[in-house]
Amino acid sequence: MEALFCVNCDIIGAQQTTKAFPFYPLLLFIIICSSFCSACMPGYEQERSRLRQYLGVEWLPGGIEKMDVQPPRNVRHPSDLNCDFSKPELCKWRNVRSGGHDTLDFHLFRKEDNVEFPVVQVRPGPSKVAVGDQLLLTGDRKRDEQVALLASHPIKCQNTTGKLTFTFWLYNGARIEVLILEDREDEGLHALPEKPQIDCGTVQMNTECTVTIPPNLQPFQLGLRAYDIKNSEGSFVMLDNINYEAQFCKISIDFGPMISEPLLTGARGEFVNDMAELNCDQFGVTCRWRQSGTGKSIWKRATGTPPPAIMLLNETGTNIEPDLPSAFLYIEEGSGLISRNNLLDADTKPNEFRMLISDPIHCMGPSSIELKFRIWSTKGIKLSVCLIEAESLNVHICHPIIPSLSPAQIQHNLQSTVLNFAIAFRIENVNIDFENFVIIDDIEVAGGDQCGDLAAKLENKLLDQFLPVPMLSSLLSRPIHSAQELSCDFSKRAIGCKWANPEGLAGDVNAWEIGVRKKQKDAANTLFDGDIALAQLHKNAPAYLVSETIQCVLQNDGTLKLRTWNNGNARLSVCIVRAHSMEILDCQNVEIEDSRTEEEVLVDIPTTDEPVKLLLHAEATTKNGQHQGQVAVDSIQFDAKICPSIPSASSFAVHGVQNTPLGSSPSVIPNSLQSDNSPHPVPDENVCRLLSCDFNNGESMCLYSSTRVSSSLSLFRSFNRSAFSMLFGRNRVTMIESSQFHLNAPARLHFDFSITKGSANMHVCQDSIVRELDTCLTIFEGGETLGWQHDFIELSENDRKVYIIARLSNGARKASVQIDNLILTDIGNHKAC
């Protein structure tokens, strides 16, 4: 080993430096020669190669700089002092560079190969060190004794005996000892006279050493002091694998002169009348915030002098002090997590944290709340600001708080869809290994235009401007030739509109009314320009406004434009429903941003291939609330390409007529149809059985049905081996309808009909895959048939349904209608089944 540390190089300036780089000539050569002695440069690589050859360690320039520059802070756990120097920046140890306690620094080295340390000269640590292992080394070759001191970060309090374990190597007379240090205000770092004994076992070779550290209720530090480094040939100390086991006292954060007192505010759980009532910066009797929930930690009111700036900087990252009084929550070490369920139920964990919650807020509709505040909190704590449902205390929405933005004012925009809610600050998570605290101040709340007293004012705003009267329009099954016919401004009490309240709906339903405009002095603050459709939603029942039937909406979706308003307690939806069953096919909610004025909305109406109606559905958004819902609509405009209710003559289907004398039996009987001999595609037998019917099976209508048409109660029924119906008075229309079918080839549906005891018109209509009632044609008009009359209608693969409709002629008082012998054939009149 002596040969390893003998280097003939005169180091310029080495004797003048107060703390020389690690001592022995080879290392001194590597680091200092390159800086001070250009004549030594030719030998640099050679000596470094010898170091790698005999010890396998190499210096890492600046390797522990990040470790040394860390400000010493109280360690929370004994394991915080564990360090193997693989990541020096995480080690809670440092070179002591002030106070005259040492003359050298420890430096970081890395094991670069598998060369073993000489067992006799370098001990008691293990001779085999893994490649890549990092360790500290200090040393020198001066005759005057050199000392290096490595100190731990402070331990505030230790209530049990500790065990310090570490590995070290000594060479050429160097020694090491463990010190207990105190940082005294008057004299700085001071070593206590008691020096714990280092126990390396009986054989001090290839071993690690332990030291017993007695309990100490005063703050102290551990020190590893390398000394007796005074050999001119060089001596050194190496350190590695520091571990510490002990039990520390719980550490409370020192808030200095700041004091805390019970949080006694004016919050009583009553609804606020204005958002500004939630502003709070003193947290006294005028403040509308209080604590809620369970848990050992409770919110208090911090008063007096703010906490020390240095403490705030260490714990929160900012030294800007809060302007007390403030809301204050202290969380002791070991507190856990809160439940994610109802914040007050019995299943929450016992260590949950209490919330700081506002008095409740009532709004008449979706609201936007602007919340501003300042916050100070310990690092690692997770906080949220939430909207809590006022009655159930379930969490509605939560936004995470980023404390790093404070003490600048933090702003959150909270969107609420519930009507009764409170704002709450809550703790989501903390580091249970540390003491934690939260300080909240300067709370400001704004927005909520539909909240508080404003909601009550809006409720009467509409009735102050409009007089409700009954709507005069009604649904008369009027044909719709173009989309523009559904436009309506509700003037003249909507008598000309093709929108009306539906009849015969089950359950409680509110009726739409007409709001007739009153004369207003303040024209600038009025709603709408003329009369409106108005729904006042009593008893929490909905209101429906329905259009006449649209046969279909063709490709390129249509749009429904209207102006609407609600008082915040109601919602309007635009729906598409099946014309006959009123089954909802699609609904779109209409959202308005500001209930202080009406808004124009545009709703897409999708393509449909069946008869539909448009429906305006108004409903209240709260139940058993103190305010009723109100919805107003005006200026309806429908823009779409629709199927006309009555097609042009060019679109009539092919049909044929054959009369049978009065009193004769029906003309069409099985096997009696006139047919040609040409081959034709044969329709599906299943469709044939679906559409064929002779009404001879008692009261059976086969697979046909008869439903009531608007404003008429007449129905077809099986009677006397035919489908029979009577028309009279107000019951002027009757209809028989087939089941839905899918043809594989063109076909004809033959049938017989008879009109007696009056005058009636007969029509046959078809549905196609494009639209319902795609083709309607008149097959008989006026008078009686004077016996049975035969007809047929040609069906294509696109057709889906067939309707036979009888209507009382103008001026006629009554008529009897019969239908019989429905038979499906191919287009050559060959029976399909």
TrEMBL record:
UniProt keyword annotations, A-Z: Membrane, Transmembrane, Transmembrane helix
Gene3D superfamilies assigned to the protein according to its UniProt record, in alphabetical order: 2.60.120.200
PROSITE patterns the UniProt entry points to: MAM_2
Organism listed in the record: Heterodera schachtii (Sugarbeet cyst nematode worm)
Residue ranges of domain MAM in the record: 81-251
Annotated TM spans: 23-44
Coiled coil: none
Stated name of the protein: MAM domain-containing protein
Organism superkingdom: Eukaryota
InterPro entries (alphabetical): ConA-like_dom_sf, MAM_dom
